[in-house]
Amino acid sequence: MGRSFETTLGVLGGIIGVIAGVAVALVGGIGEAFLLIAGASDLYTRAALTISAAVLGVVAALLSGSRNKFSGISMMIAAVLGLVGAGVFYVPASALLGIAGAVAFVRKPELEAHISAKCPNCGAPLESSARFCVACDSPVPA
Cα Rg for the chain, rounded, in angstroms? Predict the structure, then answer.
């Protein structure tokens, strides 16, 4: 199994986060236009922070296959930043991004399926198409 679990949760959390950011912007727009609430325009800044955090979460989720520690930390940061920006609107996105980030951070990389042999000289694992051992540089018999 690859990193599809983290990627799926992270992308889903990011999409929900973008929706939450748009909801915060709409609340700010309605409050400013119709209700004349003081400070409603501050919600545009919060919406920008929320959408930025959601985009960070999506990008980190898409990187989870190659840079799992970095993407795990980035998804957890996106979960916290989104909560700061949108509050309760961001809770579902934050939960998804937080879980995906934690799993990406702690999951150990799996051994690749294409490692099928060991070096006769040093015993290091070899890829099936290797001509030389990467550990000891000795040639691998065909």
Answer: 22
Dig out the tokens for 68 from the structure. Answer: 């799992």
For residue 136, what pLDDT band results from cuts at 50, 70 and 90? confident
* Chain centre to alpha carbon of residue 34: 38
Q: Which residues pair with 2 in a beta bridge?
A: none
Enter the pTM of the model: 0.70
Q: For the chain, how far is it from start to end, CA to CA, in angstroms?
A: 30
CB-based burial label for 129 (10 Å; 0-12, 13-18, 19+): exposed
Q: Identify the CA nearest to 64 among candidates 29, 105, 120, 22.
A: 105
Q: What is the percentage of the chain residues whose pLDDT exceeds 90? A: 33
Rounded to 5, what percent of the chain is helix, strand, coil? 65, 5, 30
